[in-house]
Structures are given as C-alpha cells and as structure tokens.
Amino acid sequence: MANAQAGSSQRVLVSLAAAPHIESSVKWNQVQSALRAQLPLRNIHWKSASHTSIRTIQELDVDLVPLDSPREEHSQIPVTVLEKPLLNIYIVNTDLEGYKNTIRKQIKDWHSSVTTRKNQEWLIVHIIRPETRTQTANFFQLKGSVLEKIRSDFNTDKRERCVQVAWSPETDAPAVWAELINKIKDGVFTAFELAVAQREEEVKRSESQRQMPGWNFCTFFILKESLSSSYEGVNLFEDAYGQYEELEASFYHLKEENLSWFGTLITPVSGDDSAPLLSMKRKAYRDFILANTISVFDFRIYLLSRQCELLAQRGRLNEISKKVAAFLGGFGRRLRDMEDTLPPFFIESWIYSSALSAVEYCDNWASRFSITGTQLNSFNAAKGELLDLARTQLDIIGVTVGHLPQKSPFSSSCRSPGQRMKTTSTLSISNSDILKAISDDEAFYKLYVDVTNRAIELYTSTGRRKFALRLHGSLAALDLHRGEYQNALSIFMSLPAHYAPHMWSSLEAFMLSRALDTHTDYQQEKDTEWIHILLSFLKSYVDNLGAELLMHEKDQVEYITRLVENLHQAAAKLDSGILVIRQIEIMMTYSVLRRFDTSESSCRNAESVSKCSNSGDEGRLFPGRDDTKPSTLCKAAAAGTYLLDSSELRVAKLCLQWQHRKPPKAFSTRKETPVLVYVPKDLLALDVNVSQPDKIELGEPPTLLVTVSTGRNHTKKAIVKLASSGVTFRPMDAYYSGGVEPLLEQKRSEQLQVVDNSIILEDIPAHSTISFMIPHSDTSAFQAMKITTEVEYLTVPEPSLSRTIRMTQVILTTLPISVNVEDFFRGSRLFSKFTISTTSHQHVRICAAELMTQKDGLDGVKISSTATKNRSVVTVTPAQPVNFLFHIDSAHGPVHESLILRIRYRMLREEVEAVVNQTVAKVVVESPTPHQHRAALINQLVEALEGDAGWVGLYGITGELKVPDTPKDAANKETAELLKKAKELLKDHRHPCPPEGKWREITIPVDVPHMNIVASVSLQILSTPFSDSSVKTGSLPPLYAGQPMSATISIRTSFHWGSGAGNKEHRYMLRYDVEEMVRDWLVSGPKRGDFTAADGETKVVPITLIALHHGELALPKVSVTALPLAGELTMGSMAIPSIETFQIHGAETVLVLPRGGRSTFVLNMGSNCN
C-alpha cells in the first residue's frame, strides 16, 4: 500500500529574520525562495525521551514566516504546540568589518528576543558566495572569519547553532543547503520535544486530579486533544491516534452519574439520522465540548470521526470499517433503551445512513492509496459487513411495517409485524429512501435488493462465500414472500451445492428445507428431483443429529415424519429404482462375532484386512424407533478388528447406501465413532504359514518354507499362490521339506499339480499339515520381504462353496545370527575362533557348531575342537555372544579348499513353544475334544509367557518353565483344570541331555587364510656379570635393578602356510625391532636389524638389558615385519609378503630385585673440634 501524507491544517512554523537592509533587498526574496525549494523536510528520524522506539517521518511541511508577523491572541483554551514557531533563524550576509560595526548589535537584539521564548530554538546562518569560501580556505585566515566571530559571541553552549552556507543565485545547488537542512531538522524537533514534554506533563497533572471536585472531563479532553493535534501536525499519526484511544478508554471508565459534563444521551435534531457519520463539518463539536453541552451521542460521533480520520492518514482503512461497525452496533443497542423518546425508526435510519456513508468515506480515502491482494480483500469484506448491517436495519423496518414476514431469515432481531414502539417525540426521520420504503412496499423491495446485491458483490470479491450465500438465501426468501416461486426454488436448489463442500451443514439443511417448502407451495410434482432434495436434507439432518440446524419448524419430529412418509409414497410411484450413496445413516449394533461351525459359515477376506464382506438374512425395519439388532454372518472372516464399511436400506423402489468410513478431519462436521467388529482367531480353521527353511546353505539358491494346516477342514482341493514385490517365486522347482526332488516328480498319496504359478494340493485330511519348499530369486538387496499368500480351497462337506484366505507376512531375509572369525597361526597349526552373536533382540539357543571339510575330505588336514564333547546348549543374547575355537593341522602346507561351518540352533521362542506343545499334548490326551482344548491351552500359555519375561533366566539355567498367571486362567472350568496340569508339568520340566527337539541348521563356507611367513619370537635372559657359574642351566640368576643382563632374541620363521611351503631355497628379507620400554628396560645392542629368513631357520641376536627399577617386569616385545620383494609389483607398487608374528615370551615376567649394600658414616659428637 503506497503511503500518502495528508496535510494538516496546522503546519510547523519557522521564523526568518535578517538585517533591515537585507530584508528590503531583492536578495532576501531569493534567499527565501531557495530555502523553500528545499522543503518539505524529508526522512526525519526522531527519538523522544518518553518513547522507546524511533519515529520516522517521511515528509514534513514547514511554513517560513517573519519573526514579527502578527499573531492572533488566544484564550486559555489549550491549542497545539505548533501554533508558535519552533525554530527562529537569523540570516547574516556581511564581511568582518560590517559584522563588527553593525550586524553584531542587530544579532544581539534578535538573540535576546528569541531566547526568552519558551520551547523555541534559534539558528544563525551565515551566507557567503562560493568563491569567497575558496579564497578564505587558509587556516589562519579562517580563525578571524565572520562565522568564528559569531560562534564566539553567541554560540556559548555545546550545541552548534551557527552554520555557513556558500550560496549564490547563479550557482544554486541542493548540496549547499544540506548542513542547514539538518540543523533545521534538529532544531525543530528539539523544540517540539520540549513543547510536547511540557504538554504531556500538563495532561498527567490534570488526569491525576480527576477525583478532585471541580475536575471536568471536557476540559481534560480538549487538553489531551491538543497533544494529539500536535502529533498530527508533524505527521506522527500513530501517536495522535493513540491519544484518542486513551481518551476513549477514559470515557468508558466514567460512571453514569458522572456524566454531568455532557448534555443528555441524545438530543435529536432534524438530519441526525441521515447525516454522514464521519463528517466533521456537520456540527461545531468542539464548541459544544468547551461549553459542556455536547450530548453523548455527538461526543461519541466526534471521537469516532477523529479516530477514523487519523486511521485514514495511515491507510488503515480496514480498521475504519470495523470500528464503525462496532460503534453502530454498540451505541445502537444503547439507544434502544430510550427508543420511546426518539422519532419512529430513528435508530434504524441512523444506522442505515451511517453505514452507507462510512462506505462512501472509505472509498474516497482509498483513492489515495494503491490497495491490492489480501489488503483489498480485507477492505472489501469490512465494507460488506457495513452493507450487511444496513440490510439488517431494512429487515427490522420491513418486518415492523409488514413488508416482510415474521420468519427466518428476516426475524433475527425484529419485533412482531405491525407492532411499533410508542414514542413521545414529534419529530420524524429525514432519510428520504427510508421514508419512501416505509410507505411503498415496491420501493422497499428495490432498496432491499440493491443493498443486498452490493453486499453480495463485496463478499464474493473477497472469497467470503458463506456470507454471500447467506444473503442469496435472503433474496430467495424475499422472492418466496413476493410469490415468485420459480426464482425462489431455483435459488434454494442451487445454494446447497455451494454449502456442501465446506461442510456448512446448518445452512445447507436450512436451504434444503426451504427448497422442500417452496416445492410444496409451488405445487410441484414429487418426482426424482424432489426425492434427491429430500435425501440431501435428511443427510444433513442425520449428520448433525438435528442439533444446531436452522429448522423453521418447531416440531422437528412431526416435520421429519411427514417428509419420510411423503418419501415412501413418492418412491412407490417411481418407474425405476434409484440408488443413492451416502444419504442416510443406519445405526447398527455389532457385538463380537461368535465362531461358527463349517456347516454355518466360511472364511473369506474380500480385499484386505480392513474390509469385510458381510452376508446374511435380510432384516426389515419398521417406522418409529426400532431397536432391532440384525445378526450378521461372515463367511469369509479372517481374525482381526474390522471397520464397518457400508450399510444398505431399501424404501420401496429406493435403495439407500451408507459408507461408514470416517471422513477426513478437515471435512468432518461432528465427532464420529467408528463401528468396530472384532473377529477372534479361529484356531481350528485352515491356516497357512510362510517362514525361512530349517536348513540354510549360504551360497545356494534361497528358498522359503510354506506350511499348510487344514485344521478341522477335510480339504478337497487347495490352490496356494505366493506374491511379493521385487521377488520372483519358482513354484515349478518346489519340493517337499523332507526331500529335494521337484514337487511335480514327488509320488505321494495326495495328487499334486502346478498350474499358472500356483501349487495345487488335493485331498488333504483334517488336522494334518503339509510343508514344502519354494525357491525364489535373490533378495540380498532387501532387509525383509512382504509376502502375500492366497489359498483358495474347497472342503469335502461343501464342495460347491469356494473359500479364500489371504494373508500378508513380513519375512526377514537376514539371518538371526551373525558369525565372525579370527585366525591365529602357530607354526604348522591354525587356530580359528568363531564368535556367534544374535542380529535381533531375541535369544538364540546354540546346540552345536562344527568345522569340517567337504564330503570327500582333505588329505593331511585334521580339524579338532577345543570344546568338550558333552558341551551343553548355550544361549546367545544381544549382550552376550558365544565363542567356538577350532585348530587345524595341515601336513601339506596351506589349505586351498573351503571348509564348512555348520551351526545347529533354534530361537528360544521356538524351543519354548515346542515344550508347550509337547506338554499340552500329554495333558489333553484323555479329553473328549482334544483338538479344541489343545489350541486353546497353547494360546493361553503362549500369551502368558509373552506378557512376562521373568521366566527366561531360570529356564536358561535349569529348563524349568514357570508360567505367569493370567486373567484368562479361570475362563472355563474344564480348560482351567487342564491349564493347571499343564503349568505343573512345565514347572517340573528340565533340559534333556542330549538336547531333543527340532533344530535349525545353517551351513557357512569358510575359506582358510594364507600366510607367507609365520614368525615366532623368543627373548631369553642368559646370565649377569655377577651370576654364579654354579647356577644350573635353564634357571635365571637373581636379577637386580641397574645390573646389565645378557639376553638373546631367537626368531624362527616358517613358510608352511604360504606359497613357499616346502621350498627350502625360498628366502624373504625381514626386519626385527625391539620394543622401546623406556620406563622399565634399557636395551643395548642391535635393537633393530634386517636379516634373510628361510623356512625352518632361526635367527639369534644377542642384546643386553638393564632393568631401570625393581619389581615384576614384562620382557620387551619384538616386532618382525617383511620387506618388499625385489622385482615383484602389486597394483604398481612393490609387493610385501604377508607375515604374522607371535611372542613366545609374551606372557612371561621376570622378578627384578632392588640393589643391596651398606655405607658407614662417622660423625663427631663432641664439642672440641681438636
């Protein structure tokens, strides 16, 4: 929005004075013209001591006046601080000699005059020609210049009030006035701040005396308004507006009994009801205020007008309309209390005229600005609200005089038709349009339509569809009242389509009900169109349960009943049926579905687990309140919780369907509780499960294990089909889990087929399980597979009824365990340590781990385990892995073929479930219905173990399985007894030895590493210089700190595990390096050196060790590295053979004793030194 400055009636004054001979010259007019050309002042930043923020003034108009200009004499009435000049300027144009002789005395007289004036600043301007400044630019000449003399004579304080301007009429340029303009800005606002501070102090002093006798609000108002006018004069409109806001707040705090400073609430005169609300020229408001005779009505209008004028100066037009609307509504209600003293329809005419005039004023003010975008929308919407307020006054007038009916939407705030408030006033309203509308109904209708259309146009342009549509409804109601049924019906039928997308159910239902009434009044046939209107109305009514709807009928039940009866009659006369979706809600009560026998139902999942296709006997609902609970039968129910999707109701030839899915939150009109249907798991139904196979061989094509359990169903035929995104299954290569031959070549009692990538199983007895493996493509790029398994099957008792089970499972492609290996070379033996850890949060039970050769074996390779043969089952937890150690002996050098690591394991959950199954099988063997109790007991025991993990620690050590108690333990007496026996058996369970049960197996190929050089290093202390020759060989002599010790380093090399195995002529260059242990040992001798190594040879190096302190010390380590092979390159660099070094003395320590000795000192204890 472009900023616009509106000139105030009072401008800032700046006085100009000069020597008499200058003021009478032509040059004086030239100086004034040049100075006025620099005005108005621009970009002024003012920081007041009483305000925290900096005020910015874009432009400020300044009037230049003579110092001795005649001024009006003013009374004691407070006026703006801009009435007198804020800055006084004296122009000097003379040389040094003239200044001394004449001008200094004239300046002194002027200075004495202006310094006695309160809240005014002064400034002396010395004007010289530009060439004069160039000639006098010398420093020594400048000290004796006119400007320096003026400063020394008059500018005695720190504030700089003297400025020099190098100007001539021939070379006028804005830059020469820059310093002077800045001084003017500074001087004007320094004086303004002083004047405002004094006026603010007067306002505070007056306000503090408001509780004292004699205080007058009107006097206080004029005083504070002068402060606002001062701010307005310098274009500080926000500060000026703030003063009126404070005055309005002060007025609101006045009590009714303290309104003696005003006249009556209102003293209506001719024209008050039709005069422009925001006009300041209609009455002498300030004179009334000063005389304490202004009415509250006129005072509030004056205060509102001043506020709106200041808001318009800043372009805040939206606030003007809102402020006017709030004032008209609030003060209009206050006038209702004394309506009997006002002319008839005075309030309605005043509000109507004021609203329209405010819109006209806003449009005039808006012409100064460029309003676009959201600001334009807000501006038009605010004007639309004013026009809507004016239309409401026409509603009141129309209903009162009988032009409009006493019904919605006209009767929102109207008195009874024909009823007029009795009044004692002899005056009448002056608005000619209202007077004509009261006497002539056609004039009233024309005025009503014009004002309503103007409001609709403004609402539509701002996107306020709801307000515009409401007014369209009012026009339709007006057409209905005037007998124009076709127009009314057309509007009522078109409006609901606009309300529905926004979920404005109240307005939608009201308009639909009016359309139905209009249809009846117009005596139209109840055809298909009428049925659709009625169903739309019933939908809105049901969505809100009849609450908060704009129903025009008092008896809603009777009204709805009559409509439904008419619907039934109209539907019976239809030539063809009508299917209506989502029109009426059917309230149904669903309980937990019971489990049916196979003779009663079947299980079939139509699309997904979130939708269930229900079928059953048709139910008949009768008129009135029907508490019928229709039973449902689902022939294809998979276990889970379902959401009711749709219901259907038939009325004659009309079919109503209701979609029960919850609408999005953004479009929901009420809180809807979804209808949930819980279907318990049928433990004896046909089931299919997909899992990883029990035996996994890494490096072989991946497979999945599919297990089909028939349950109670003797299955005649079952078609199994698997699908997964990104995975290709190969059913043609499937085989039974007990064999490896293709499935088509298996010769079993059941006939098997593979058709269209589906596996067909036939004639499977009840309570039997069949498992097969199905290969699939590589899934190493996926962490898990989402597999959809579909089984379509027929049972022997019902061969014509096809059932389908569709299940989705997520199968992890990663293994439950991970294996890491670490190798240690020791001569011709290789030690391999395998660390097994779990890859998930579950515990894994490890039965055994074996490292073996291929089936044919390897010549000269022997593998042994360091574990005992009777090692018990170990448990791998996320925090505790398990290690297995093997050693490999190779008689012929390195092993070139891969070995096999075979691990037998099972998940702790699988082991516990197997124990539970075995225990339950023993318990239910004597039960008359073992299959039914077996499934129930297993389910309860597993749920109890899943709910509390406190049994895991004890079970891992002893095998005892202590099942926690659950609330379902006593659900059935017979089941509870069997459950108690099962718990006792599980408590007595112990881990069998050897371990029993089904174990999973994983086979991992293991490559044996190669090592070119294996070096074993030994450091041995031989003797000391003081060792006794009688010390036996192999034992160390006593070692003392600081004593030299002879030692040898022995390095034995072996090429057994490398490419040079068995080649006695092969040589490598090696380098040894003795570890620096500067705190424990001092090493002397060849601590580092290179040597040539051969297979089976030993390099011996003598060194000397000196222990630096006593204690048990570890011997220094010796590192051995291989040097690059001469002439061999790997990836462009010299090849370095691989080498592993182990310290034979790595765990050895030696005891170093402290050095012993004795010293004798003789001290003279006598006093005689002789």
Strands ordered across the widest β-sheet: 4-1-5-6-7
Helix/strand/pairing class, anyone?
A: alpha+beta
Assembly level: single chain
The helix content, as a percent range, equals: 25-40%
End-to-end C-alpha gap: 117 Å
Strand coverage percent:
15-25%
| Main sheet makeup | 5 strands, parallel
Work out the radius of gyration: 54 Å
Number of strands: 43
General description of the model:
The protein has 1170 residues and is of the alpha+beta class. 32% of the residues lie in helices and 23% in strands. It has 25 helices and 43 strands. The strands form twelve sheets. It has a five-stranded parallel sheet. A five-stranded mixed sheet has the order 14-30-29-25-27. It has a five-stranded antiparallel sheet with strand order 18-19-16-21-22, with no helix packed on it. Helix 3 links the parallel strand 5 (87-92) and strand 6 (121-128). Helix 17 runs antiparallel to helix 18. The radius of gyration is 54 Å and the shape is flat. Mean pLDDT is 79; it is low at 1-8, 136-143, 581-627 and 739-751.
Topology:
Blueprint: E1 12-18, H1 20-23, H2 26-36, E2 41-46, E3 55-60, E4 62-66, E5 87-92, H3 96-114, E6 121-128, H4 130-135, H5 139-142, H6 146-154, E7 162-166, H7 178-208, H8 217-233, H9 237-252, H10 285-290, H11 296-313, H12 317-336, H13 346-366, H14 373-401, H15 432-439, H16 441-461, H17 465-481, H18 485-499, H19 505-521, H20 528-543, H21 556-572, E8 578-581, E9 640-643, E10 646-651, E11 654-659, E12 676-679, E13 687-691, E14 695-697, E15 703-709, E16 715-724, E17 735-736, E18 752-755, E19 758-764, E20 769-775, E21 784-795, E22 803-812, E23 817-826, E24 829-838, E25 844-852, E26 861-865, E27 874-876, E28 882-890, E29 899-907, H22 908-923, H23 930-947, H24 952-958, H25 973-987, E30 1000-1006, E31 1013-1023, E32 1039-1040, E33 1044-1054, E34 1067-1074, E35 1081-1084, E36 1088-1094, E37 1098-1107, E38 1111-1114, E39 1118-1122, E40 1129-1130, E41 1133-1134, E42 1139-1143, E43 1149-1153
Parallel strand pairs: 1-4, 1-5, 5-6, 6-7, 8-11, 14-30, 31-42, 32-43
Antiparallel strand pairs: 2-3, 9-12, 10-11, 13-15, 15-20, 16-19, 16-21, 17-20, 18-19, 21-22, 23-24, 24-28, 25-27, 25-29, 26-28, 29-30, 31-33, 33-37, 34-36, 34-39, 35-37, 38-43, 40-41
